[in-house]
Amino acid sequence: MGLLDLFARKPRVNPTHVNDDNFVELVKKSSIPVIVDAWSPRCAPCKQLEPVMVSLATHYDGRVLICEMNTHGAPRAATELRIAATPTVVYFKNGKPIEKVVGFRGSLYHEEAIEELFGIPKKPTA
Fold first, then answer.
1. N or C: which end of the chain has fewer CB within 10 A?
2. 67 tagged catalytic
3. How far apart are CA 124 and CA 121, in angstroms?
4. Which listed residue (27, 36, 46, 67) is catalytic?
5. How many CB atoms neighbour CB 114 within 10 A?
6. β-bridge partners, 119
7. CATH architecture of 12-118
8. Does residue 46 carry a catalytic annotation?
């Protein structure tokens, strides 16, 4: 990575925290597509997925809302989404879940899913 790459980078965007209190407002009422990463504290693949979600939040900022949801802190939402294992990533469009992926998947998988499910490319078109 060169010096110019450091200056050209977008600032890091962290996923939005979701819990039972804000789930409806942030996820179901969102005007843009939403991805919820359901995780649990002792889950090793969940920790592996964290930088992937940060990368997605940074690249799709303003176009897709990337959220993280600790299943222990959001038991009602986790039950509603039928989260049986972590990590589970749920894709929402118009407030409704349209796809659910259980287990770790890398950035490329999620980027392709975003393009296929939401029609949003990684880089904004000029």
1. C
2. no
3. 7
4. 46
5. 22
6. none
7. 3-Layer(aba) Sandwich (3.40)
8. yes
Q: Domain locations in the chain?
A: 12-118
Describe the crossing of helices 107-118 and 44-59 by its angle, rounded to 10 degrees: 50
Q: What residues contact residue 107 under an 8 Å CB cut-off, 6+ apart?
A: 52, 55, 56
Among candidates 112, 111, 123, which has minimal Cα distance to 56? 111
Contacts of 30 (CB under 8 A, 6+ apart): 65, 92, 95
* pLDDT score for 9: 64
Residue 103 Ramachandran class (φ > 0 left, ψ -120 to 50 alpha, else beta):
left
**Active site residue: 19, 28, 40, 43, which one?**
43
- Return the bridge partners of 92, or none: 34, 97
pTM for the full model?
0.89
* Integer Cα distance of 103 and 99 in angstroms: 13
Backbone conformation region of residue 62, classed left if phi is above 0, alpha if psi is from -120 to 50, else beta: left
